[in-house]
Amino acid sequence: MKRERVTEGPIAETKRRVKQPRIGFHAPISGGLHNALLRSSELDCQTVQIFSRNPRGWKAKPLGDEEVELFKRVRRQTKISPVAIHANYLINLAAADDAMLQMSRASFREELERAILLRADYLVVHPGSARGAGETEGIHACAESLKRAADGLELGSLRILLENTAGQGECIGHRFEHLREIMKACPALPLGVCFDTAHAFTAGYDIRTADGLEATIQTLDREVGTKRVRAIHFNDSKAEYYSRVDRHWHIGHGYIGRDALRRVACHPKLSHSAFILETPYDKPEDNKPNIEALRSFIAGPNP
Ligand SMILES: [Zn+2]
Ligand SMILES: [Zn+2]
Predict the structure, then answer these.
(1) Is it true that domain 21-299 has CATH number 3.30.420.40?
(2) Given pLDDT bands bounded at 50, 70 and 90, which one contains residue 288?
(3) How many helices (H) and strands (E) does the chain have?
């Protein structure tokens, strides 16, 4: 007997919902890390990205047992998952300067330890900049840094996500090939990719048109495999195409535009990823229009 296909009604609705990507935003941690989970939950988000510390300082206060327990308890209550931590901005895993490289490796190891303690799913990091030394050297240094920083650590289910960059200031990671080379050099590490739409766009991947997006996704798939793309940084861009400038902007108000971002949100090769907004805001609730735009893209019909 032929099974009837359910295309309408609550069952079909549930089935459609199961397939939908989880959405969230980079939430502030003022007043405690757990607050990021609460703010996300209040805004009906299912996933989150946080810094686990001040992102602009080398020194981090060690995580206390109570802080960790509170974070885990609130996470169980809010069911926010996956949890991504973005590594601090001082880290440069590809640094040509030795003192900088050593500090960066130590700081990234500390980020890994904090992510393990907090049972985060992902630690997002930019591959770095080998100013003066060239891209090949930078890729090599980054891979070596990742291996040394993780050496001897029990990562559990934590995955390190390499983020594609805008290519600003001689940063590596602006071509998907760079990410592929780093991953290839670290076969024993659980590496994945975080795809930032604004970075890709200003790095020269023209995702404004349907064809341009398709070509970009094909390249991404060929170089790193879209299955390894676990997070999407869902941003419009205040900087122009191929400017290699990193300026995130509100959804639909930048150079990428609403229709193009809708196609990204609905792309079947990306639906397994967590969609995380990194659009600027003063108060988390100011981010509502961006969250609602992303939610409407995902809930709406495929473009
Ligand atoms: Zn980033
Ligand atoms: Zn990003």
Answers:
(1) no
(2) very high
(3) 10, 10
